[in-house]
Write a structure and sequence with these properties.
Layout (H helix, E strand, L loop, with lengths): L4 E3 L6 H7 L4 H8 L12 E3 H15 L4 H8 L7 H7 L4 H15 L3 E8 L2 E8 L8 H19 L7 E3 L9 H7 L3 E2 L6 E5 L12 H13 L5 H17 L5 H7 L4 H9 L5 H19 L4 H7 L5 H12 L3 H8 L10
Parallel strand pairs: 5-6
Antiparallel strand pairs: 1-2, 3-4, 4-7, 5-7
Helix pairs in contact: 2-3, 4-7, 5-6, 5-9, 10-13, 13-16, 14-15
Length: about 350
């Protein structure tokens, strides 16, 4: 299994927040598998799974379901390093989000960001790459909360989301979510992210500098070599975001990669893979994530994962995991404050 990494700057403010609840932060870091030396270097890389696990442990031990939202308020906007720097220098919000989508893996390999447009509506989505065997509820809350903060900074008072959506089920107290996002918040949805008026994408940024964007983009491109693992992860990321539009066939994925169907097939064959095998891998990762954290209907889940009907999804799932989707959900769902598994 590919070990995704994230810069330790993502944990900025975490120790102080945990300590404020009277909980020993160093104990939680150790339990999650994050070495103390990594916390002293913002550019140190730590496993994404360990990072997400720490947030779940912190939410549980601090006894608060909205730990991720609280930490989002404590983060400075510079935690993403050069990714934030290049976003700020682009000409408008659309360009800034394109930079985020393109370079997020420089800061966080464990998730993908997508931008979908449907008429007058735009959707900025955030999707972890890990499966439901590990809850990412707190990490999603943190990232969405942080995303709302940097959009407020970039857009000023023009940032007015229509709604926020979360895959995970609603907490006991939804007020912290409504207070932070200042809009309706819906849970048990098909994606994590914000829905807003498409006109926001055209808001100009006053500090734009084309020369700086060029220099930073060249550096970021050169520091992220297109390794075998990176190529496969890129294809999987496009499959994930394509599912949001209901069209994740091989031709659509190839088009989003700016290549042909045959070239994509050849590229996957070189890695000993087929498109169907990769599609199934993404489907099952998404299926377990939704089953563990959401209460959307099985029919809705089957449709979202591009199965022809519920029975086809159930058969494929049982063949993969040896149990039906409902049985898997019953064995892997938890109602703990952290939203993780018991």
């Amino acid at each position: 299994m590919y070990d995704y990494l994230i810069r330790s700057s993502a944990l900025e403010g975490a120790a102080e927040l945990v300590d404020s609840f009277g909980v020993d932060a160093s104990r939680l870091f150790a339990a999650a598998g994050i070495p103390a030396r990594a916390l002293n270097d913002p550019d140190a890389l730590v496993p994404y799974r360990a990072y997400a696990n720490f947030l779940q442990l912190a939410a549980h031990d601090c006894g608060t379901e909205h730990f991720g939202l609280l930490l989002a308020r404590k983060r400075s906007l510079t935690v993403m390093g050069l990714v934030w720097s290049v976003m700020c220098k682009t000409p408008d919000i659309r360009s800034a989000l394109e930079m985020l989508i393109r370079y997020l893996r420089h800061h966080n390999e464990g998730a993908v960001v997508g931008l979908q447009i449907d008429g007058r509506l735009a959707c900025l989505s955030y999707t972890p790459k890990t499966s439901g065997e590990q809850s990412t509820r707190q990490e999603v809350d943190l990232s969405c909360g942080f995303g709302a903060r940097f959009l407020e900074v970039l857009c000023g008072d023009k940032w007015k989301p229509i709604s926020m959506h979360f895959v995970h089920s609603a907490p006991v107290d939804v007020r912290p979510y409504r207070q932070l996002f200042k809009c309706p918040v819906d849970f048990d949805q098909e994606f994590n992210g914000a829905v807003f008026d498409v006109g926001i994408l055209d808001i100009p940024l006053t500090d734009n500098d084309e020369r700086v964007v060029t220099v930073l983009s060249e550096y970021l491109d050169s520091s992220m070599p297109d390794t075998d693992d990176a190529y496969i992860e890129r294809v999987k990321g496009i499959i994930r975001t394509s599912m949001l539009t209901g069209d994740c066939c091989i031709d659509t994925v190839a088009r989003n990669l700016s290549t042909s169907r045959r070239s994509l097939q050849r590229g996957l064959e070189q890695h000993g893979l087929t498109f169907k095998a990769l599609l199934d891998e993404v489907r099952f990762a998404e299926a377990t994530r939704f089953l563990a954290e959401s209460r959307i209907s099985m029919n809705q889940l089957a449709d979202m994962l591009a199965y022809s009907d519920l029975s086809s999804f159930s058969r494929a799932f049982k063949q993969r995991f040896g149990q039906s989707p409902r049985q898997w959900q019953a064995n892997n769902r938890s109602n703990s404050p952290g939203g993780g598994h018991a």
